[in-house]
Amino acid sequence: MSENTAGIATDEKIHDGNYSSKIKAHTSPADKAVTLVIYVLFSLYSLICIYPFYSIIINTISANDISANGEVFLYPKHIQFHNYIDVFKIPGLWNAAVVSVGRTVIGASLTVGTSAFLGFMFTQMDLWGRKFWYRYTVITMFFNAGVIPWYLTMRSLHLTNNFLAYILPAVVMPFYIILVKTFVESTPKELQQAASIDGAGTLTLFFKIMLPICKPILATVAIFAAVEQWNSFQDTLLLVTDNKLYSLQFILYNYINQASSISTLVNLQNAGSTAIQSLATKQTTTSIRMTVTIIVVAPILLIYPIFQRFFVKGIMIGAVKG
Amino acid sequence: MQARKISVKTTEITKFLYILPFMILLGVFAYYPLYGWVYAFFDYTPPIPLSQSPFVGLKWFHSLVENKVKIDQTLQVLKNTFGMSGLSLLFSWLPMMFAIFLTEIKAVRFRKFIQTVTTLPNFISWVLVYSLAFSMFSSEGIVNGLLKQIGLIHSPLLLLQNADHVWIMMWMWLTWKTLGWSAILYIAAIMSIDDSLYEAAYVDGATRMQVIWYVVIPSMIPTYFVLTMLQVASFLNNGLEQYFVFQNAFNKDSIQVLDLYVYNLAMGGGSYSVSVAISMLKSLISVVLLFSVNGMSKLLRGESIV
User: Fold this and answer.
1) What are the chain B neighbours of A7 within 8 Å (beta carbons)?
2) Do A285 and B126 touch (CB under 8 A)?
3) Which residues of B touch A136 (CB under 8 A)?
4) Residue A229 to residues A100, A276, B115, B304, Cα–Cα distance (Å)
5) Do B118 and A53 touch (CB under 8 A)?
6) Is A321 left (phi over 0), alpha (psi -120 to 50) or beta?
7) Best mutation site among A42, A132, A151, A203 for testing chain B: the one with the most B CBs within 10 Å?
8) Taking CB atoms and an 8 Å cutoff, what residues of chain B touch A253?
9) Which neighbouring-strand residues pair with B42?
10) Sign of the alpha-carbon dihedral angle for A180, A185, A187, A193
């Protein structure tokens, strides 16, 4: 219990901002200078972190000829949304979006379910070989065979060009199991004892008692797992040649490296429907790349402000335990 | 008595049966690939099955150092790996400093804003980082457009094709992506510092810098130590994605770390056996590093980190 409360207490401190009062305000000129430098440096660094995103967004919604001249860097000019409409006409992009969303939803759900179940099971003292199986699980975080043996294994299991290749390896994730296990250990033992005296079996205990209690940590795990699936690129690179299974990340990577052929493609398609296309809405290679970038990054930008308060809490609970 | 013992055994076994499918899955994806190490001892070319490939013993390990060209190649890859991991290690105190000075900010909203904004890059993939880099710094990117617009340059700066400062550039991208996030662990450590230490320092008339130097930093050394040790243990594992997405014809020689080299050899050149040999050496060295670091930690602090 103590670990858990410590974690939450520290987190609340952040939100209330109490902890900076630990250091009493000094008003000497040197301290003021230090404060000023800290503020300036942090503001600059924040700008460096956020500006690339902002700059790409305003460029994709500005007229493409202005954007191509490098005139858009503070605010959008001649706002238009043609890029977004046209980019989705690129063959394969919708399909990749479906693959990415599919693997994120299915993969992350399985990861969360398994992490919850195994995290709970590893707290069960009467599990046969508990210590051994826990170590067997955790050690895989530090040790692996390498990329090529892994690729050869996947190939021999016929998981190349197979959607399951995105899902199956992600089912058991040791790090999340540790997080859940730590959380379960911090809940009162009496709860489980009382339930099992009332005749609850292992599965009832898990589904009826532990799962509802574990919600906060499972929210954290869900977010991490989903971000991981959404961002995954290496597995497509290694295992997939069938373009029906390409993910958005992979498509984006291809677009960055391909020559200007995509913009020609989009502009040709448009030429069919609208006879004359103005320079302002004509896609350039850059405008297409930027637009696809925004489409790939958008889900993260949208859910990030919501989930970041969860993960600070979750990771701190993990951190205090060490 | 006897009956009770047996029933205990059954619940133990039942519980094990619940986790068995997951243990099998882990076995298949984490342990079974170790079998692939045998490829390092055969002359394996993809269409021909391993059973018909000739056994060549340590030929592939030897091939890494068999002539001057190969030695140079191997050394270059090792140099890149050590260079880039070394740079990260050299600046491993940055997240700690970031956390210390961030907690010095008294305006709560401002501090929360910075914490939110600086952790954001950690959540995007390397492909997206590369795409941002490309949009900003390529010859037709925003920075070059801006510089041309204000007349500072006439021909675009080719920052991404530059082979001279690859290590620094890679370190900067890595730092941009991870700094804010890595600081969170240190912020947690600062939170757990006992208030009375601050009060004592304040009563003794310590300035802010003195409080940081004599109270905050010493309290964070254990966290720093553990994280740095783990970093040492994974010294050879730079990962593949970052270097893969940033590699191009110009910077190829100075960007190839071990992980990328292994990938390029196998997927680009079809030399599976050599790649597996390198992977295998790398994993073994990493395990040795992990255990030495763990042993060192036990010796110095009486606490193991793994």
Assistant:
1) 188
2) no
3) 23, 26
4) 8, 42, 24, 32
5) no
6) alpha
7) A42
8) 127, 130, 245
9) B55
10) positive
Distances (CA, A) of B109 to A17, A24, A309, B105, B112: 9, 19, 14, 10, 5
Instruction: Judge contact between A142 and B290, C-beta under 8 A.
Output: yes
Q: Name the residue facing B123 among A68, A143, A304 (closest C-beta).
A: A304
The CA distance from B195 to B192, in Å, is 9
Contact (CB<8Å) A152/B33: yes
What's the rounded Cα separation, in Å, for the pair B123 and A160?
27
Instruction: Return the closest-CA partner of residue B134 out of A7, A287, A3, A72.
Output: A287
pLDDT tens for A170-221 read 999 999 999 899 889 988 888 888 888 888 888 999 999 899 989 888 988 9
Q: Which of B32, B116, B149 sits opposite A153 (nearest CB)?
A: B32
Is the Cβ–Cβ distance between A247 and A133 less than 8 Å? no
- A172/B22 touch (CB, cutoff 8 Å), yes or no: yes
CB pair distance less than 8 Å for B128 and A297: yes
pLDDT in tens, B244-277: 999 988 888 889 999 999 999 888 877 888 899 9
**Per-residue pLDDT band at A248 (split at 50, 70, 90):** very high
Q: Do B15 and A121 touch (CB under 8 A)?
A: yes
Alpha helices in chain B (DSSP H): 2-26, 59-63, 68-90, 94-103, 108-119, 126-137, 142-149, 166-191, 195-203, 208-211, 217-233, 241-246, 252-255, 258-263, 269, 272-301
Closest chain A residue by Cα to residue B101: A38
What pLDDT, in 10s, does the model give residues B168-209?
999 999 999 999 989 988 888 888 888 888 888 888 888 778
Mean pLDDT of A55-67: 89
- Residue A53 and residue B242: Cα distance in Å, rounded? 19
User: Position B285: which residue type?
Assistant: I
What's the CA gap between B80 and B93, in Å, rounded?
22
* Rounded Cα–Cα distance for residues B306 and B302 (Å): 13
The whole-angstrom distance between B130's CA and the closest CA on chain A is 9
Q: Are the C-beta atoms of residues A100 and A300 closer than 8 Å to each other?
A: no
**Size of the A and B interface in Cβ pairs below 8 Å:** 283
Query: Closest partner residue to A128 among B13, B241, B272, by Cβ?
Result: B13
Structure token pair of residue B152: 């500072």
